[in-house]
UniProtKB/TrEMBL annotation:
Protein name (record): H-NS histone family protein
Region (Disordered): 48-81
Keyword field: Cytoplasm, DNA-binding
Residue intervals of the DNA-binding protein H-NS-like C-terminal domain: 57-95
Gene3D superfamilies: 4.10.430.30
SUPFAM superfamilies with a match to the protein in the record: H-NS histone-like proteins
Residues annotated as signal peptide: none
UniProt cross-references to InterPro entries, sorted A to Z: H-NS_C_dom
Family, per entry: Belongs to the histone-like protein H-NS family.
SMART domains: HNS
Length: 96
């Protein structure tokens, strides 16, 4: 059975070989892509390589209210913590 230190040395050697092989293949792939882009006259926009600008994620649209307090006119969408005025019988506050 191999010792821990021997295995670590093998791992380091393999990682080095992997990086060398990756760099060699990467150069070939880059050359291929450049040739294809040149042959077809493609741009970064054609390939959707331009970074997107603006906020990350999407802003949530406000939810329409489902319940309304007839005394104060306060509304609640039905999401989140229920207001104190809603009580247990929500049906009577439902907006038609």
């Amino acid at each position: 059975m191999a010792k821990y230190q021997d295995l670590l040395a093998q791992k380091a050697a393999l990682e080095e070989q992997i990086e060398v092989a990756r760099q060699a293949e990467l150069q070939a792939v880059i050359q291929q892509v450049r040739q294809i882009v040149q042959d077809y006259g493609l741009s970064a926009e054609d390939l959707s390589l331009q970074p997107k600008r603006g906020k990350k994620g999407s802003a949530k649209a406000p939810v329409a209210p489902k319940y309304q307090d007839p005394k104060t006119g306060a509304t609640w969408s039905g999401r989140g913590r229920a207001p104190a005025w809603i009580g247990k019988n929500r049906a009577r506050f439902l907006i038609a």
